[in-house]
Structure formats: C-alpha cells, structure tokens
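Re: that backbone. Tokens:
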C-alpha cells in the first residue's frame, strides 16, 4: 500500500485558460456548459451518497452549473460503475468509487469493465470500521470471540454483500483468530446491522459512523476500530493494532473517478474542483465528528492506491476461495 500524500491540487494555467477562454460563435462551449452528475452505486443514505451530495453542492456553487447525485444501486456497486464506464469521457459523469467497487473488479471474473476503464480524479478518505458484536451474545472480549470462533461452527457474521469490506475484513480477521464462521449476506449494511442488533447474527464490521447510535442504545457492543489511532466518536474503543491485529486496518474509503479517456484539461479542472470541495471547512466540520478521516490523494497516487487495494483483497479472495455468481 502506498503511503499517504496530502497535496494542494493546482489547476495548470494552460488547462484553466483552455477551459475558461471565450469561444468564437459556433465553437464548442467552455466546460462545464451543462449539469454534471455524480453516480453513487448504492442506495441513498450511505456514506458515499452523503459525501457525494456535500461535494456536489460545493462544486455547483464554484462551477455555476448544477451538480446532481444519481443513485444507481445494485450488484454490489457494479450497476452504477458500469453505467459510468459506458458514459462519454467528457467530464459530465463522475463516479464515487468505494472500496467495495474496487473489490468487484477482482472478485467478478466476467465483469465487463476493470479499473483501467476509469480515470482517477481525487481520493477523498474514508471511515474506519468497527469490530461489532450483537449485545445479545455473551462475547465481551477478543479472547471470548476467539473461543467462539474456534468452537463448533464458529461465528455467524453479517455484511452488506459478498465482496464488501465488511465481508472481507471479517473473513481475514477470523483467519487471524484461527477460527471459522458463517457469512450471512444482506442487501446493504443497514439490513446487516438490523440483523446484528436483533441477535440474528453475532459479528459484523460496519463503519464507525454506523455503530455509535446503536451502541449508545445498547443494541451492539464494539470491541475495536480499524484505524491507526482511536476515533473521535468512539474514543474509549481501542484500535485493532492495540489488540495485536495491526493487519486489520480496513477503511470504507471513497474516491472520485471518471470514464477512461477523459481529456487532461478536464481531468485537471474536475480534480481541482473536487479537491476544493473536500477541503471545505463546512465539509470537514460535518464529517470529521462522524469518524471520517480525510486523505486527499491526487489522481496518480489514487491510481497506485487502487492497484494496491485490488492486489491486497484479491489475495484474500483467492486464499479463502470467495466466489460470486456474475
């Protein structure tokens, strides 16, 4: 995995001039001349949806054009992702790519697109995950969980779908515990959390932003978070590294992409606009208390990160013989 690199993304002067320069009558209008859409490959209300809407609002004000969010859920992000790949590389279609969307490119062998079919714009950052148990279990520590995982049929764990971060993180964690478990796949994380809260499953790795309220209400028990340091919204919960599991460092991260073949001036223009939106103080004040950890990456660094994540989770998929029907 590449190291983090924070940067101030400057729009090249030549590119800015090319886009902003007045055009003669009959010439192609300056970009953007019509609404831009951000495709979110999940239902409304998820972290990718919420982040995209905040980014869209900020971009619209800066660009003086509407920036709309279009939810195209289904197929564990593949329906929305494919709709972007098939769009014209003209800058009017952006994709909010999540960790799960990257995983699908190595999990599904017959997928009609790959990472190379996208132009990376900006990496945004994301939410750490939380090792979460149903409050109806008698498990109160990692040692208790290890005993449960090594006995009988092991642990029943929930996720929002095959190949999601919740699924793969739990699989890898059980391997480190030298235990086993039964995966119960739901349509999305909220459904998985509902099952966990009701005691229908025993364990899950949702984002930290999703469990604070459920923990406060007594429905779930949180043992650890996957971030390098403790989070502001769960300050009393240790990290996985503190508990001896440094390799369990997953995050529900988000990045913005466009179809492959996007012209360089438009790539630079959009990257700058998105970066500015992510750095906006109101954006940070809203998401940081929810556990969001900003990690803005330029397009080239984002591409390296995506390739590393594909290789990392591809190994977990291969080692555990995880398959999905295309």
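Recovered sequence:
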């Amino acid at each position: 995995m590449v190291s983090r690199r924070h940067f101030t993304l400057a729009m090249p002067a030549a590119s800015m001039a090319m886009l902003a320069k007045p055009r003669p009558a009959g010439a192609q209008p300056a970009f953007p001349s019509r609404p831009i859409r951000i495709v979110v490959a999940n239902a409304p209300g998820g972290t990718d949806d919420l982040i995209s809407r905040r980014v869209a609002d900020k971009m619209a004000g800066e660009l003086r054009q509407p920036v709309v969010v279009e939810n195209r859920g289904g197929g564990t992000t593949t329906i929305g992702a494919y709709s972007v790949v098939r769009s014209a590389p003209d800058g009017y279609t952006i994709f909010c790519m999540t960790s799960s969307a990257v995983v699908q490119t190595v999990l599904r062998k017959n997928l009609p697109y790959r990472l190379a079919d996208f132009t990376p714009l900006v990496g945004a950052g994301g939410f750490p995950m939380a090792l979460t148990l149903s409050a109806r279990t008698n498990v109160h520590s990692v040692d208790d969980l290890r005993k449960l995982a090594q006995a009988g049929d092991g642990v029943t764990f929930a996720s929002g779908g095959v190949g999601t971060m919740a699924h793969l993180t739990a699989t890898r964690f059980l391997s480190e515990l030298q235990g086993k478990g039964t995966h119960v796949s739901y349509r999305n994380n909220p459904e998985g959390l509902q099952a966990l809260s009701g005691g229908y499953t025993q364990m899950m790795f949702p984002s930290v932003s999703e469990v604070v309220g459920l923990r406060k209400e007594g429905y779930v028990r949180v043992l650890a978070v996957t971030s390098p340091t403790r989070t502001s919204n769960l300050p009393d919960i240790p990290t996985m590294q503190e508990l001896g599991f440094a390799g369990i460092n997953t995050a529900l991260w988000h990045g913005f992409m466009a179809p492959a073949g996007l012209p360089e001036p438009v790539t630079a223009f959009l990257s700058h606009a998105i970066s500015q939106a992510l750095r906006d103080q109101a954006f940070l004040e809203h998401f940081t208390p929810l556990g969001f950890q900003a990690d803005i990456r330029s397009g080239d660094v984002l591409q390296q990160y995506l390739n590393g994540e594909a290789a990392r989770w591809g190994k977990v998929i291969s080692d555990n013989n995880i398959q999905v029907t295309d």
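The chain has two domains: 13-21+30-127+252-319, 130-225. The longest helix spans residues 299-319.
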